[in-house]
């Protein structure tokens, strides 16, 4: 590692002349060859490389050689091989420099004009690469400098380190690999594969894409196909994907919007938000808040140590949480909630409601398919329920009101708390109510079978449905 650092520092000293050391030598190099086929290969270092398409069939090389020492400048060479069916090679060579404490600088800026349909392999170090308008397969490799690729066709491979990468209007499959620099890609008419570290990734308007990043943010927009994103220690934002999305992030915020297909989202130690998912949704988050809405079909959501809030789910939903509240609204299917140490809230459920909780209350309103609730150390408040109701609570009150639909069985059980039940006027129930250290009262006409201070059996109306009410150390009220 120390050796690499020394080389890097020496290169900076050699390529960037200090203000008090002006360059004293400059010369140019020009060479033209007639292209006969094959690949144009460029091997360069310590300066910029620019590649442009020409109007004819020639490969033209123009180089500007600069040095703070004339003898050194004259010893720098740019060679261009003779044209053959296998291609043309362009290479820059530097003499061995013996540095004795003075300030030496040198560089070569290379401009290459070539046929647009010729394959290209451009390699550089300690300088930028700018390629524009090449319509054949390309390989661009750089280090310690930026890469810009524009208006290309054919398969492209771009590799860089310690510098940015910018790709615009690529007409074929494109692979980008970078480290310690940002990646920006716009308009790829093909599949896109990006690997990066310690830099941001920004992609707009592409076909199928895979992004693997670390320690840098990802912003992905407008994908005409499927998308795969893996990142860590940064934010991820994805929007407008016509296919499926698979996203895996760690230690960063996630924002997902407008996915036409299914979506699978994994995250940790950061909040997750989603809006407009076309088909099935799966979300798994540890130690981060989850919030989202508008899912076309079902959803499976798992979280921990934070709140989960979802609404407008077009199918069944299963929500699992630990040490956090759960809120679910407008679920057009069955809803299952499993949480601990938090409050569970459900509203406008077009199916059955099934809740398992501990150390938290449960509140539900407007459930069309019945409700089953199991919890402890928190109240259960159910309102506007159509269908069977079963509540098993401990150390928490139960309140049921505004029951809807035809008669359905009711089973309510708790301890160290009261039970309050509002019965519909046309309801018909066989009642079995029991308590200890509490009273049983009713304002509903009941044909008694038996009654004591702590128990009551009898019928309400037709007695068609079963009503079982049981508590300990609490009162029961039927009204």
* Cα shape: rod-shaped
- Please, how many helices? 2
What does the average pLDDT come to?
A: 92
What structural class do you assign from the helix and strand content?
Answer: mainly beta
Count of extended strands: 47
Query: How many domains comprise the coordinates?
Result: 3
Residue windows where pLDDT falls under 50 for at least 5 positions: 1-21
Distance between the termini: 80 Å
Q: What fraction, in percent, of the residue positions are helical?
A: under 10%
Q: In percent terms, what proportion of residues is strand?
A: over 45%
Largest sheet: 24 strands, mixed
Which value, in Å, is the CA radius of gyration? Answer: 36 Å
Give a short summary of the structure:
This protein is mainly beta. It is built from two helices and 47 strands.
Task: Explain this structure.
The protein has three domains: about 1-145, no CATH class; about 245-345; about 350-479, no CATH class. Helix content is about 5%, strand content about 50%. It has a 24-stranded mixed β-sheet, with no helix packed on it. About 35% of the residues are buried. Residues about 1-20 have low confidence and may be disordered.
Main attributes?
about 475 residues, mainly beta, 3 domains, 24-stranded mixed β-sheet, 23-stranded mixed β-sheet, 47 strands, rod-shaped, disordered N terminus
